[in-house]
Specification:
This protein has one domain. It contains six helices and no strands. The radius of gyration is 24 Å and the shape is elongated. It has 234 residues and is mostly helical. Helices cover 72% and strands 0% of the residues. Helix 2 packs parallel to helix 6.
Length: 234
């Protein structure tokens, strides 16, 4: 009879962490593109509001072709902004699923929300105000190489995101319910403020993506070099 292998009686080692650098770069690029499109949309908002002011002050001074062009540019800017935002959201979620999978390897019992909430947590009313933040916090806690890691960046990002989302919802209602030209101009100017807050949230999100990704890549590098503290003890 042969003696049992040295690993007999011990659980198998955890699976290796999957790379996150490529997905992080993709998420950051889409966040940058979303910010650039947002800045362009803010410029169009200001231009369109000024055009409406001219129409209100003297309707005969603005040619119909200029009004038509303004309506067309303003409408398409909203469409492009929405499409780029959707692509950015998908890229962020794909990255989030990857870093969550790695975080579950690093800390299997350190997550308060099940995996489906990585999607539903953003869209279900009320709980969308804190479930995604809890998920990201748990990923950071599992990934950080120090106990009780600071979360100031994550708090700032989430505060900007919540405020910007609420303001964007209000801005959409203002535009949808606008019946008069002055109301449309006011909605366009309010949208500039909304874009400014969401731009802050996007910049902070870039730092969130980079911080979590860098730490998880450090874990992968440590594991490949045989560093004994790369994974939690089992």
């Amino acid at each position: 009879m042969y003696p049992p292998p040295p690993s007999a009686g011990y659980p198998p080692p955890p699976p290796p962490l999957r790379p996150v650098r490529g997905l992080a770069i993709f998420a950051v690029v889409t966040l940058v593109c979303d910010s650039i499109v947002g800045l362009a949309a803010a410029g169009i908002d200001i231009w369109y509001a000024a055009l409406i002011d001219r129409v209100i002050a003297d309707p005969d001074s603005v040619p119909d072709t200029e009004i038509g062009t303004g309506d067309l540019v303003y409408g398409w800017s909203g469409i492009v902004e929405s499409v780029v935002y959707l692509v950015t959201a998908v890229a962020f979620l794909v990255w989030l699923f990857r870093v969550r999978a790695n975080a579950e390897i690093l800390a299997p019992d350190g997550h308060r929300r099940a995996a489906p909430w990585l999607i539903f947590g953003w869209v279900v009313p009320i709980i969308s105000f804190w479930f995604p933040k809890q998920i990201v916090d748990d990923i950071w806690d599992a990934s950080a190489r120090t106990p009780s890691p600071p979360k100031g960046l994550f708090h700032a990002w989430w505060a900007a995101w919540v405020v910007g989302s609420l303001m964007s919802s209000v801005g959409s209602r203002l535009l949808f319910n606008a019946d008069e030209l002055d109301q449309i101009a006011a909605a366009a100017r309010f949208d500039v403020v909304c874009i400014g807050v969401m731009l802050i949230a996007a910049v902070l999100a870039i730092f969130v993506v980079r911080r979590i990704s860098d730490v998880q890549e450090e874990h992968r590098s440590a594991a490949s070099s045989g560093f004994p503290g790369a994974y939690p003890a089992y």
